[in-house]
Amino acid sequence: MTTVSSLTAGWTLRATDPAPDSPAAALPKEIPxxxxxxxxxxxxxxxxxxxxxxxxxxxxDEWIGRTRWSYRTTIEWTDAGAERTDLVFDGLDTxxxxxxxxxxxxxxxxxxxxxxxxxxxxxxxGANDLEVVFDSAWEYxxxxxxxxxxxxxxxxxxxxxxxxxxxxxxxxxxxxxxTAGIWKDVRLESWSGARLAEVRPALSLDGDEGVARVTALxxxxxxxxxxxxxxxxxxxxxxxxPVSGESVDAELRIPDAAVWWPRGMGEQPxxxxxxxxxxxxxxxxxxxxxxxxxxxxxxxxxxxxGSKFTFVINGIPLFIRGANWIPDDCFxxxxxxxxxxxxxxQAVGANLNLLRVWGGxxxxxxxxxxxxxxxxxxxxxxxxxxxxxxxxxxxxxSEVVAEARDNVLxxxxxxxxxxxNGCNENIWGWFDWNWQEQIGDRTWGLGYYTELLPxxxxxxxxxxxxxxxxxxxxxxxxxPNDFDRGNVHIWDVWNRVDxxxxxxxxxxxxxxxxxxxxxxxxxxxRAIHDDPLTPESPGMxxxxxxxxxxxxxxxxxxxxxxxxxxxxxxxxxxxLNQSRAIVFAIERYRAQRPHCxxxxxxxxxxxxxxxxxxxxxxxxxxxPLWHGLRRSNAERLVTVQxxxxxxxxxxxxxxxxxxWTVEGRxxxxxxxxxxxxxQAVSVTVPALDSVGVxxxxxxxxxxxxxxxxxxxxVSGATSATRMFADDKxxxxxxxxLRIEVGPWQDGRQAxxxxxxxxxxxxxxxxxxxxxxAWPDDSDVDLIPGEPTTIIVLSPEPLDxxxxxxxxxxxxxxxxxxxxxxxxxxx
Length: 826
Ligand code: BMA
Prior knowledge:
alpha+beta, Jelly Rolls, 6-stranded antiparallel sheet, 44 strands, 31% strand, binds beta-D-mannopyranose
């Protein structure tokens, strides 16, 4: 059997030949290094730099990415007689020279692939010196840019000329922290005879039978394969195939296989697939993964409107309720399985069924996809090309091939993986961002997206669909962001126009749309210590990376909400507006099913504390948007939507696999709670379908649009409210709340609240008291005469008086009536 010796211990780090004026020159000669890890986190752990996530520290750290770093450890080696020993790196970030006992083993240029060096004849008994020297990724990428000629790029850094996480060079939500280091596992593997160099499983369903096809490629130390067999087993079945050449094919059929389903549609049964190599009596290598049986089809067939973009899982068309995923830390080696799990559970809590791993980040570690397999969260994996034109020449091209093969093979076993996507916005860039003149007749990446990558997927992961881009129409003859065809990104909202513009569109599938809001108060004030703290104070501005971000926040809020009078108001209202913008879009597009078959919001998570489009901030705290996602993505949703003729329609959306009987009422209420009109609702919504119920004219027609609203209360879904005007136009009264705070028990504390007038945007911010405390709902409408209870989850008891008052308790009413009071006092 292969013997594995971990090499993660005993590493030290030093800057090699630093420029005399660089802070690197003043560093100690030996700094303890964590492997897997990265230079930044080692310097931080050694107290040599300040935390780059805090205040203005990011600006002090550019020299780290401009320095050459050497990692060193000693391997104590005893020869146990194996025929071969390989030095294996699961990931090197990025431009490295690997030396053993002073001899160069090789150079590396790609963060996203694995490297294996045969060191059989180079290891000596006793101590061996292993050194990995990282050149500056900046400088390497700048050199390749100079060699090949620059290409257009949405961000002014050379990330397109090096295979390294693009966002590492800075993004519109991320800092410039150009990393280096041994960011994944490193080990020695000793083996004899034959090793499984590649295992390519393809799992599918044929009626009730699970079909597992496996191709195994061997690497051998001998030409003689006599007596060598490969054994494949799954679900109690096993086959043994004699080896003749270097590859072996096997097929197993599992009768009545348990089918893997996305969450909400069924269970997530997983099987263990094991492949092993035997030479006579001895097992020389073995490989095993958890796998699942499912079929996936991306239906992009033409229809009367254009062409669809529908995921069909095990034969059932599924509405995707997704979010885009970015690296959860600028230093991904810090991501633990616990942190992955917490974040993916937050996605589940927000009623999401898909995460899109976006192309400016990384192929995540196995644990990410393992957790998604377990929880039934679908994954869509971008190849790592984002927002730029990419050269298709060397030295980039062969790196792209190697990286694609490595990662497609690694991830192909995951039943949760339902799409390989070629690029993020690069085809759009070619069409719309004035690229063509600059590119001329040079390559820009299209050959990757339309030829190279789909070929790799077809060869190595034939049971998972491929799509060239997000967005893409299906043809280079049709604009990539055509709303009738394929998938679109909607970014005019946020950048230019009001969020009600979402309602002007009837997309087939939206794979990006988003709206910014600041992080939670606890995260913001942990990271930023500006005094005074304002949206424009220096730390706030450094932690807002979007072009003109604060102006867009203000412009997006202005039509809807009262003007903020303080930093507290600004924080509350911008977060509220972020959530409302996205809820507006999701409800609208879900009501359009099956014309539209999915939304993927930009973005679930953050990599550091920042004002961004995220629903969960850099400290893992849920923003109000998370609650908005949870509500608008509920499996069963009622929403009141305007029709083209101006009338109102109640749309009941049923994403569940069971029929839904919707019983209840729709009322027009006055702000003081008086019922002005009422309509009974009784309708059955089939599974995976939606039904519209027109509102009666007396329910949908207000006598006073500033003092009335529509309320829907039905069985099986959260109540819905629809106002007749934007909040800032409403005649909202002072909230005059009666709040009762219950005792803290098992991490939960109930807050019951009543009001005798309509309260809009009622929200609790218990993280003002304890950073990790959070409410189970946000942006709640308080209806007169109907007490509302919000549960606060907190690791410690919260003071009842503080929990029941400003700044924990907020509402639109309090902002408006405070503003009115100020007006009155003048
Ligand atoms: C899209 C994404 C990201 C970006 C986001 C917000 O372009 O693909 O590149 O962060 O918009 O601007």
